[in-house]
Fold:
Amino acid sequence: MSVQKAKDNYLGKNKRRLNCAQSILDSFREKFNIDEATFNKFSRFGGGGAPNGVCGAYYAAKYILEKTDPEKSKELDVFFIEAAKSLNCKEIRGLKTLSCLGCVEKASQFINNFCF
Structure:
């Protein structure tokens, strides 16, 4: 299941530890044909490094959805804000609504539940 793979990627259980954004991309890599260059680009997007400081897991899920189903992309915003109370990494960590692992789980759950 892609949700478990994403969590395992983040925790380093699949050979190497990936950041939150790469954990999402890697777990859906085959399904959405994500190439190595794109995957490598997302190495900068963990720990608040995604554009505008958004959560990297959210940003990766948004990237996938905008390429495949823009309407679902809008639904992700609502889903993620409901779960994390923000899209901004530092705010989420400050509010302690979700851990980084929790963000990886929620982002991958959304893709898994609504795209398969």
Summary: The CA atoms of residues 85 and 95 lie 8 Å apart. The chain is about 65% helix and 0% strand.
